[in-house]
# Entry
Amino acid sequence: MIGVFDSGFGGLTILRDLQKALPQYDFLYLGDNARAPYGSRSFETIYRYTLESVRELFRRGCPLVILACNTASARALRSIQQQVLPVEFPDRRVLGIIRPTAEEIGGFSKTGHVGVFATAGTVSSRSYVIEIEHFFPQLKVTQHACPMWVPLVENGECDTEGAQFFVKKDVEALLKEDPEIDAVLLACTHYPLLERQIRAALPSHVRLVFQGDIVAAKTVDYLKRHPEMEVRLSKGGKTEFLTSDTAKFFKKGAFLFGMQDISAESLTF
Ligand code: DGL
# Structure
């Protein structure tokens, strides 16, 4: 199975695009719902929680794990890849969602100015700024943290006046900092659910960039380039779900993310 990890429900927005692009593969999704959100937690805590989840996905037989969470990708991926895998799991791989997005983002802007909306944890790590600079050194990247957006989504408040207020406030703050921005990346798994409000607040010439399809296309490409990994993945077209909260809690929350009647297995770390 391909392991897909997120702090909670947000990774379901990435999982959906992965399932679409790779329908023949099996997926095992793990949401650390009992300890989400990660966005405002310390580096050390995000690393510890993420590593525990990755170990669990490995234990259950995933040779490849995708961190479908920007905060975990920003805070934990590099250390897991450099310090844990070579010593403990030399034949397993963990991929994040920041680099694949950074590789593509420059293609969305004509002015050479892009905005990045993300959690406070992702913004303070500066991972997007650093990664984008490798691929598009001329691109001006302005980040903006939106701490209210994840709670709005998780509380089913996407289509309310409250959501409209906070989205407008954050969009205005970003564009005030750099009025030349013509592409905005939603660098948090929850934010696509606020698409309607974000589009309404953004001027019409500004493009909205979603990560899910970029990550899915890059995963297809990765498997083509790594046949030794591809042959190890099971192909039955099924998806199973794990949660660190209760199965009932997961089912209810997954519904908000457009997934109906999900039965998850509850686990404790
Ligand atoms: N999944 C997280 C991300 O993409 C958002 C939720 C959280 O803060 O845990 O950054």
